[in-house]
Amino acid sequence: MNHSEKKYGVMLVGCGYIGEQHIREISGKKEFSIVAVVDTDPGLAESFAKRFRALAFGTDYRAFLNDERIDIVIVATYTGTHFEITKDCLEHGKHVICEKPIAANMEDASAFVKMVKSSKCKVTVSYVLRYNESYRMIRKLISEGCIGELRMIRMQQNHQAGGDHPWERFKKLMEDCTPLVDCGVHYADLAQWLTGCPVVEVKGISAKLDEDAPVDNYQLMCMRLQNGCSACYEVGWSKNILSGNAKDFIGTDGHITLTMAANRPVGKKDKDLICVYDGDGNVRRIEVKSIYKDMYGQALNLIEMIETDGPGVISIDEVYSALRVVQTAQMAIDTGRVLSPLETFPDA
Predict the structure, then answer these.
(1) E strands along 145-240, which residues?
(2) Which residue, of 14, 55, 153, 266, has the fewest CB within 10 Å?
(3) What is the pTM (predicted TM-score) of this model?
(4) How far apart are CA 214 and CA 210, in angstroms?
(5) Tens digits of per-residue pLDDT, 1-51?
(6) Whether residue 287 has pLDDT greater than 90
(7) What is the C-alpha to C-alpha distance for residues 274 and 260, in angstroms, rounded to an integer?
(8) Domains and CATH numbers, the chain
(9) Closest CA to 12 of 43, 40, 34
């Protein structure tokens, strides 16, 4: 991407797990300077400031909104705060990278979309799979017809709590929204992106795997898309489930599997593996150098949006559409019904 030599000043709001991923990927890059880091935990904010050489740190992002050195704000806080923080940033002329989901309910999500469309500032939402080279390759292969007509997408993303993913963190996340809503937006968007069609029907099941979980922490969502393709997404955050990551794309003439680098055998962890199987069992292996969460690429895309007034890799309407799917699926699970996202929630 070609852009000006301007160095963009960044403020990070939220110095947790995902905030660290954002700031680590852009720290030291020639396009960005870290002006401020903010967290309600002053010790954590100070620690981030030292690690990433921020010029300032604090506990209230609002204290920095008039700082002319700040061009971009990364909102990496809990879901329930995304709308308010983004609103404050836009009102002060700051561009925003906002973590997903954009809101904990569809009323706020609709208001978020209207706010973004009416603002002169640019906003991108962190649907990171759009920047992942492996998923881009799979989309290309499917569009070229290498497995015929896509009929089924199977997606699994389970996390066993512990180590770098403490159970307390998951419990805190579930106070705002379920695992399906929090992570499912990525995979509802992926299904719609790969097919070019909206999800027209959803249903699902759920279970509580840990007694102290705030909500059911295992969920399975089934989707039917407008072109007849089906898709399912399984998610669990639990001390009592094994981590799992499976991605299969099944067509009329074969199927594609994706194995992420981290899940490959020892010695093969530098690249993702895409396997393309034809109907006779022949296989083509494609090695892809891919960044699972390309936060730097996402930040560069925001710069391109700013400098060209372009739409970006993902539109705010696509962001809303994926959230509508998972919120409808959550309602379908809660009520034991089969629901249509397009009928349950209107366009923003």
Answers:
(1) 150-160, 199-207, 218-225, 230-238
(2) 266
(3) 0.94
(4) 9
(5) 455 689 999 999 999 999 999 999 999 999 999 999 999 999 999 999 999
(6) yes
(7) 9
(8) 8-127+294-314 (3.40.50.720), 129-291+325-344 (3.30.360.10)
(9) 34
